[in-house]
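Shipment paperwork, digital attachment
Item: protein structure file
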Amino acid sequence: MEISQEEYKELKPLLFSLGYRLLGSVTDTEDFVQETLLKAIQIDGKNIENKKAYLCKVMTNRCLDHLKSAQHKRECYVGPWHPEPLIINQDNYDTTLENTLNIEGLSIAYLRLMENLSPHERAVFLLREAFGFSYKEIADIVSKYEDNCRKIYSRSKKKLSTVKEESLNYDRNKTIVERFVQAFQSQKTDELLYLLSDEVILYSDGGGKVKAAIRPIITKTNVLRFMSGVVEKVPNDFYFEFKNINGQPGLVNYVGGKVHSVISFYIVGEEIKEIYMVLNPDKLKTVTH
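Attachment content:
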């Protein structure tokens, strides 16, 4: 199947967006995108009317097979699980990623909630909600009946409804994150308590590879105490940078010039509802300086 340069520019980020949402892994997604495109080039595409649908079918099935094989590993994961952080380069964000990534549904909060769906529920929901495929096209992609896909989509949407209230205004959320960091640095407890929700939860993902909280940290006091304890132990060469993480403002932390951790936030209105810390070194390999 021939793929023109223009089609390649459109389809590659589309496949990445689909795969990353399904897997939560930048590394695996990049590998599967290359496999999918290579397979497409090697076949006779005369009978393929819709290249986009065909490639999404190949990519989806590859991801579903991977999810099934990795299910036991995911179930045995030590502590909270977060997807690999996706750092979006602001220089090329508007022209390259905005339309294909569809920022709504890309945040860490949303991807974590996707874990509540079965692999097929996840696939059907994404193909419909994020990429606008018809139920007929989705049925062909996931090898199910059209009516069945409608039911799966409806069921999946109900399961994900709780995160719909998330604030996606990047600039406003960045201001809130900056205020939080400044208040933390200057130890302004009143400001910190104001910015944190009464039900705030901090999830720390170390994957059993590094020291991290195995259970979620709950309540304002406990979250601030935990973060203060972490800050007290950082070496002198620690520093951080504000980055666009999964379409929302976050922090990339460095120790000795190397990425140490990534922190993301789930913000509703002007309150921080959840904080996600990724410390597992296996999930930080794609986060570069």
